[in-house]
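TIGR00255 family protein
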Amino acid sequence: MVGDDMALQSMTGFARAGGSLAGATIAWEARSVNGKGLDVRLRLPPGFDRLEMPARQAAQKRFSRGNVQATLTLTRIGLTAQPVVNEEFLKDVASLAKRLESQFGCAPPTADGLLALRGVLETPEPVVSEEETAQIDAEILAVLDRALDGLVAAREHEGTALRQLLLGHLDTIEQLTLRAEADGSREPAAIRERIAQQVRLLIDAAPSLDEQRLHTEAAFLATKADIREEIDRLKTHVASGRALLGSGTAAGRKLDFLAQEFNRESNTLCSKSNAASVTAIGLELKAVVDQFREQVQNLE
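Tokens:
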């Protein structure tokens, strides 16, 4: 299921599935949490290590990121084993009990007491044919498939909720970008007046300063303080974020990179700003970008 047709997934989820076959009651629990890559961990009962590889491959087909753990529980396996009494050992223990009774007045032995002694009553492991083993293994893996499909559904359900949340953050980033673009401090007349005031203050403070040189430096500073490029890039990043969230692919890593770009542009906007109103917008941008990046960490 890893591919272009995969729905957006969160990396957290839980699912359970069960089944039974040939006296075996099977239960799988599958859960996942955030991870930089894909880490699949399996917990299998003793004697079932042979299933580790196909079980791991089943998870790798469905997920590309996250710490995935799957636990198999078997409450009964195979044929019902018949208990066997170790009669020679039982005779020795009964004889010893009789002697202790006659010599020391101990209570006489009881049947259930003797049978409870270790080594008297044995339950051998049931003999399971290769065909029965293959059937049990196939059912175990089929139940695992259902559990993993349930985990996919749980991750997709949360992924849908995350998608709406992230789209909301992108809407806010776009609105703040447009506010910065439309801010009155960016009007040419306002910029000219602000620079003219700064030049007049410098000339008044130091009349010997070269006026032409001051105007050249002022023009350079005005160019350096322009945030047109940052605004354009923020708009482009918003469009890219929406496209990634609508692509239906595992976009977590790309969106994390995009969050870094958002952060870079909002930082630059703040550093270039020469108006308190634009600085305030930049600080709001940084706060929303932090929220966006925090939520992106949950996506596959």
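Residues 1-5 have pLDDT under 50 and may be disordered.
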